[in-house]
# Entry
Amino acid sequence: MYRPALIAGVLFALVAVILGAFGAHVLRRLLTADQFYVFSTAVRYHIYHCFALLTTGILYRFFPYKVLKLATVFFIVGISLFCGSLYLMNLLSLIHMSMGLVGILTPIGGLFFISGWFCMLLAVIKNEVA
# Structure
């Protein structure tokens, strides 16, 4: 098993659950429907990629390839950029501040998610071929 992926997955999941509960109990009353949808999307992708991190950590036991370590990094950066930018957008809208360049981080984070999944695919394919 790849312990850093497992630790990151559990810690990020803890944060996702806290943010999800905060959103459901506090932010729902403060955000518009569209803003809350964006926040919910962030929480959803956040938790999905916590499971991806946990899966990566477990897969490393069976497929001990560096590409899975790279997938771990990609998932962590993806959560930070994609979800983090969506959370930040909602925070900025609550305090009536301009989003500036924050919005560009979301698709960049999405590319990191895609890269992480591609790395997982490579690890599984590599094992089949070997």
Q: What stands out?
A: The chain has a mean pLDDT of 94.
